[in-house]
Amino acid sequence: ASTNHLLKVILETAALTEDQIIAGCRCVAEAQADFVKTSTGLHPAGGATLDSVRLLHKHASPIRVKAAGGIRDADTAHAMIKAGAVRIGCSASVQIVHSQ
Fold this sequence. Notes:
By secondary structure, the protein is α/β, with parallel strands linked by helices. It contains four helices and four strands, in the order βαβαβαβα. Strands 1-2-3-4 form a four-stranded parallel β-sheet. Strand 1, helix 1 and strand 2 form a beta-alpha-beta unit. It is globular, with a radius of gyration of 13 Å.
C-alpha cells in the first residue's frame, strides 16, 4: 500500500462464514492493504467479536486488524486488542475514555 495513504478493507465478518473470512484475508494480504476491519458497525448481524478479530489476526498477518462494531466499554476494547486488533473503531470512544 502507499506510504501516503492507508487502505482499510472491511470484511463484514458477522455476515461471512469462517472459510469466507479466511479467503477474504488472503485477498486483503495479496492486495497489500494496511488494515483489515471486522465490520462497518452497521450490519444487523453484529459487529466485531473476539473470534473474528482472532481469525483476522491469524489469517491476514502481517496486515493489521481494526475491530469495529459493538465495542462500548473499556473491557471489550482491551479484549479486542489482546485478541490482535491494533485499532478500535467505536462511537463510544469518549464514554470509554471517561470510564477509566
